[in-house]
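Notebook p. 47: complex prediction with zinc ion.
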Amino acid sequence: MSNYNWCHNPDCHTIETQSRVRGSGDNKVLRTIKINTNRQWSKDTIWDYFCNNNCLFSFLNKFRQEVANIRPVREPSETPIKVEKTKYESHRYRWTDDGTERVPYQATRTTISRVDND
Ligand SMILES: [Zn+2]
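Predicted complex, C-alpha cells below:
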C-alpha cells in the first residue's frame, strides 16, 4: 500500500521552487511534489491530493467543467430555518472634548436556527 500521492495539479512540475528540484549536475529537473498521505493533519482531506492552495486552484480552474459535471447543480437547495430577533442592551462610545462617553442603546441580535422537519 502506498503512503504517498503525487500532487494532482498537472502543472505542479513547472513551478520553479527549490523544493521541486531533483537530480544532480547537468541532469536536474523540476518534479511534481510528493505528498505524504500518512500525515495526520491532511488525513481524508483534499490536501492528500494537492501540495498547496496554488496547485489546488490551478487544477480547479483547468478542470472546472469536469469538476462541475461530477455533481451538477441545476436548482438551488434550501434549509428550513427560524430567524429570531432579540433586543438587548449594548453601548457605544462617543467622542467628547475630554475623551469618550459611554452611550447605551438597544441593539438587535439575529439568531438563525434550523427547523427539524423529521
Ligand atoms: Zn503541486
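Notes: The chain has a mean pLDDT of 95. The helical segments are 53-62, 64-70.
Next step: compare against the earlier run before touching the bench.
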